[in-house]
Amino acid sequence: CEVKNMVEKKSPASGWPIAQGDFHTGDAQSCVAVVTMGSHLDEQGICNAGAAIAGSCKTENLGLEKVIANVISNPNIRFILCCGTEVKGHLSGQSFIALHAGGVSGGKIVGAQGAIPFIENLSDEAIKRFQDQVEIVNIMESEDMGTIKAKIDELKAKDPGAFGAEPMIVEVKEAGGAGAEEMTGEVQPLSGELALIHARMKVIERMVTDIGYRNKFAAGVYSGKIEGLMIGLIVSFVILGFILLG
User: Which end of the chain, N or C, is less packed with Cβ atoms under 10 Å?
Assistant: First the structure.
């Protein structure tokens, strides 16, 4: 940022950006990261305008995780500018903003409306760091380069300096087709029906896991009840025997 000599700056993690993806990089000491969601804009031009990193985010799970991994591993980034068009079905923009606002509960982004907004690679600590380190600036649906560059200048003028903690490093593991989508920058938009199926499959998977735990608990309770019943019967027979012998 232009005021970087007046505020404290820190070195990002070695090898930053640590997560690979569909993006370009600029000045690592800049306070602004730009996420163009489903749009393919002039990311290098955005970096030349002052962004530390700029690129798309097409999925509401692995894509978000990669953005967050690259942000929290660079304490200088204090603003994330969300622009570009929303991704049909995935709703990565809405899910990203929801994650910053409400975090994750039970592995699912609170308030997310995307098809499969399940976070698997980020700990609660990493999510909290993301929430504390950056402010989300939402100009979603805007693809105008003049508007984006003006907003970058505005945010650079408000640079608060590096976040007061060292870079946090998290590993984002590639998983199936989603990883390939983020690496190539290509993703097939989900239809409403397919999105619903994906979401229900995830919910069913978690329900099956919960049922397994409940069955184990029920089996233990049932076993305890049987043992208690048998002990009660034995005691009753003993008492009855004493009465008859007496």
Answer: C
**For the chain, how big is the Rg over CA atoms in Å?**
26
Query: Under a CB-based contact definition with an 8 Å cutoff, are residues 92 and 80 in contact?
Result: no
Enter the DSSP assignment of 236: H
Closest CA to 127 of 202, 72, 164: 72
103: left (phi over 0), alpha (psi -120 to 50) or beta: left
User: How much is the pLDDT for 185?
Assistant: 37
pLDDT of 7-22, one tens digit each? 999 999 999 999 988 8
Q: Which tokens in the block code for residue 107?
A: 């592995």
180: pLDDT confidence band, cut at 50, 70 and 90?
Answer: very low
pLDDT digits (tens, 9 = 90+) for 141-160: 999 999 999 999 999 999 99
The whole-angstrom separation of Cα 53 and Cα 35 is: 8
- Give the chain's length: 246
List, for residues 20-68, the tens digit of each pLDDT value: 888 999 999 999 999 999 998 999 999 999 999 999 999 999 999 999 9
Q: With contact defined as beta carbons under 8 Å apart, do 12 and 167 qualify? A: yes
How far is Cα 246 from Cα 188, in angstroms, rounded to an integer?
Answer: 85
**DSSP result, 21-55:** -SEEE--TT-SEEEEEET----HHHHHHTT-SEEE
